Known about the structure:
Layout: H1 2-31, H2 34-37, H3 59-63, E1 71-77, E2 80-88, E3 98-103, E4 109-110, H4 114-123, E5 130-137, E6 151-157, E7 163-167, E8 173-177, H5 179-191, H6 204-229, E9 246-252, E10 258-265, H7 270-275, E11 295-297, H8 306-311, H9 314-318, E12 321-323, E13 334-337, E14 344-355, E15 360-367, E16 380-385, E17 388-391, H10 402-405, E18 412-415, E19 418-423, E20 434-439, H11 452-458, E21 465-472, E22 485-490, H12 494-507, E23 514-520, H13 529-538, E24 542-548, E25 558-559, H14 562-570, E26 582-586, H15 589-601, E27 609-612
Parallel strand pairs: 9-13, 22-23, 22-26, 23-24, 24-25, 26-27
Antiparallel strand pairs: 1-2, 2-3, 3-4, 5-6, 6-7, 7-8, 9-10, 11-12, 11-13, 14-15, 14-21, 15-20, 16-19, 16-21, 17-18
Helix pairs in contact: 1-5, 1-6, 14-15
Amino acid sequence: MSLIKTFHKWLSLLVGLQLLVWLGTGLYFNVMDHDKASGNQNRQRVESPAVDLQRLIEPKTVIREYDTTVSMSLITLLSHPYYLLIHEKGLYRHFKNSYSLVDAVTGKPFVITKTIATVIALESYKGTATVAATVKLTGPSDDFPKEQNSLWQVNIDDDLNTSVYVDAGSGRLIGHSNDDKRFVDFIFMLHFMDYASEGSFNNVQVIVFAIFTLFFAFTGLIWTVELGFNGQYRPALLLGRKLAKTKKVKVFDKHSKSIGQLAMASHENLLDSLLNHDIALPSTCGGGGTCGRCKIVVDSAVKMTSADRSQLTEQELQAGYRLACQHNSDELEQLTLVDVTEAETHELELISSEFISPYIKQLRFKSVSGERVEFRAGAFMRFFIPAAKGSSIPAYLPVELLHHWQDVIHMEYEHLACSRNYSLANGDGQTDELVFTVKIQTSPNERVKPGIGSSYICNLAPGETIEAVGPFEEFYARPSSSKPMVLVGAGSGMAPLKALIEEQLIKNTSSRELYFYFGARSQLDLIYSEHFQQLSDSYPNFHYLPVLSRPGQDWNGATGYVQDHLGEELATELEKALDKTEFYLCGPAAMMESTIELLKSHSIADNAIAFDKFE
C-alpha cells in the first residue's frame, strides 16, 4: 500500500503540472487576438478573372499526353488559365499529391519556378515590403507541419517576418504565417503536448500521459477503498436517494396569463414534461442543449447549467432565462413560456421498416386517424419515446448485415421516457405516408448506452404505434425562388434534403438548377443512390454528385470528403453563380461547420445558407 501511495503522489504532481499547462494555454486561447493568430494580417484575397473558354484547347488533347491522370480541373494562376492534372491524389490536399500543370491556351507544360512562386506569393500579400528570400522545401515546414508536398517558402521583409507558402506542384497558395501565428502555434504545441511538432494531438506524449492518468485514477480508487475499510468515512448509500416524484408547477404564457398548475415528473426535463401537456417548445436538438431554442423564464436563483451559459446571453441569464431541456420540476415553483410552437400530436402506425444501409433504416408511418398530415419539405417531427427495455442490436437484423454488427457491443438496458426529433424524408406530395430515415446510434463502450430514440424506433414492428408531435417547419426551400440550389449532406442527414429535392422536382415541377452533393463512406452507405440516378435521368436540371471517403476498387466517382469536393467545384464550375445560389446543408456537425466555413470563405452571405442542425 505504501508503494501505491507513493506512486499516486508522484503521478498527481505530473498530472497537476500538465493540468496547469492546459489551464494557462486554454486561458490564453480565450483572450488572444484571433485575427493575429491566423497569420493573415497582410493577406489579401486574389480575384480570378473570367476565363474565355473559346481560347482554351480541348481537355481531351491534354489528357492523352498524360496516361496516369486521375482527374483534371481548370485553375487560374496569375490571371492566366491552366489545366491542373492530378496523377496521385491524397485524401486531403496536404497529403502526398502528384500534379502537372499545362497552359490551357498553348498546351505547353508549366512549372512553378522560384520566380513564379514569388509572384504568386506577392499577389496574395497586401503591403509594400520586399522579398527577403525564396526557398524550396521538400519536407514539412515548421509553419505547416502537416504539409507533405514540396513547397516554396517566400519570406517577406516586414515587421512580422511574414512567410508565404506556395505548393510547388500546383501553385496553390498554402497560407501565410508570421511571428504572431508562430507564437500561437507554440502555445498549441504546449496545449496538445505536440513536442515533436507533428501537427496532431494524437501523439505518443498524449498516449503516455493518458496511461499515467489512468494509473493515477486507479491508485486513487484503491486508496479510497482502503480509507473506507479503515473507517475514515462512510460511502453514501445509494438506497437513500430520493425516488422520482411528481410535482405541480405553475405555468404562465408569454403574456403572463396563467395556464394552470401542471403535474410534472421530477425525472423528466421540462421540455418533455411540457410536451406531455401538449405544450411544444421549439427545439431542433431534441433536448441536447445545443440549439438554445427551448427558452423559459424562471426565478433567477435557479442554477445555471453549462448549456444555459453557452446558449444564452448574460442579460438573459440574469433575467431568469433557462433552457427547458436542462432542468426539471424539482428546481422551481413556476415558469413562464417564451415561445410555443403550434403543433398537433399524432398517433402513428408503422407500415414498414427496412434497412437501406448497414446502420440506417427507412421507416414508413401513417396516421392512425386516417387524416393526411400536411407538411412542407424539410420538416421534422418530435417522437415520444416511452420508458422501456432496449437492446443495442436490432431485433430484426437481416442475415446479409450480420457481419456489419458482429463487433457492436451487445447490451440490454432500461431507459426513461424521452423525446427525439427526426426529419421527414419524403416531399413529393403524392402519398399520405410519413417517411423517415433513421441511423441507429451504436454504443462506443459498455459504459454508454446506445441511441435510445433510434434503437427504440428502429426496433418497432409493422403495426405498432407511437406518438409524435408536429410537423415542425423550420428548414425549407425559399418559396417562389428560382435561384439554383446546392444541397450538401451526409449520412442520415439525407432525409430533409431528399424531401427538398422531391418537392422541387416532382411536386412543384421546378426548372431551377439543383446540385446535390452527398457524402458517404462506401457504396453500402450511399442510400437512395438508384432513386437519385433516376431523378437525374428524368430531370436535366438535377445533378447528383455522390462522394465516398472510403471507396471500393470499383468506384469511379468522386472521393474524399464531400465538403472538400464541394470546395473544388466552387472554385471551378459553380464559381460564376455563387452570388445567385442558395445552399441547404444537413449532416454531421463537423461536416456542417467545415462547409459553412468554406462557403463564408467564398463570401456567401448568411441569408443564402440554410442548415438543419444534425444532433
